[in-house]
Design a protein that fits this description.
Order of helices and strands: HEHEHEHH
CATH architecture of the domain at 2-93: 2-Layer Sandwich
Strand content: 5-15%
Distance between the termini: 78 Å
Radius of gyration: 27 Å
């Protein structure tokens, strides 16, 4: 699936604001990765829906995911970095959520809760019964 996803992304380069001295002013080392999950042929409809839910806040109005990297001086290393982040992001977004199995409170936890409530009530009662001077 990784190779399939790599084929669907496009890249855009620009000048970086990171380290590099005069090199920064000349070379386009910043790399942006652009991917539209709705146009993906690698994902089925259920996976696309999961991506839209989990990564919805990161998508643009057109539905594109845009990731950028300008960590390194080299365009090649920035491209590797952004592709690695992209693959990790998509793979974690595709993990289905665990189904919660409902449980009951244990006897000890119920007793502890009641004990805490009694202590709190006693504190309030002692404040109330105190004569005012």
């Amino acid at each position: 699936m990784n190779d399939c996803l790599r084929g669907e992304v496009s890249y855009r380069t620009s000048r970086s604001s990171g380290p590099g001295g005069q090199h920064v002013n000349k070379a386009e080392s910043r790399v942006e990765l652009i991917w539209n999950p709705l146009d993906s042929s690698c994902l089925d409809n259920r996976q696309k829906a999961r991506i839209m839910i989990n990564l919805g806040n990161r998508l643009t109005e057109k539905g594109e995911l845009i990731l950028a990297s300008e960590k390194y001086r080299s365009q090649y290393r920035n491209k590797e970095d952004v592709v690695d982040r992209f693959l990790r992001l998509v793979s974690t977004a595709l993990i289905p959520p665990k189904k919660r199995s409902p449980t009951r409170p244990t006897r000890a936890s119920r007793e502890k809760r009641i004990k805490q409530k009694k202590i709190r009530g006693e504190i309030k009662r002692s404040r109330r019964d105190r004569p005012t001077e």
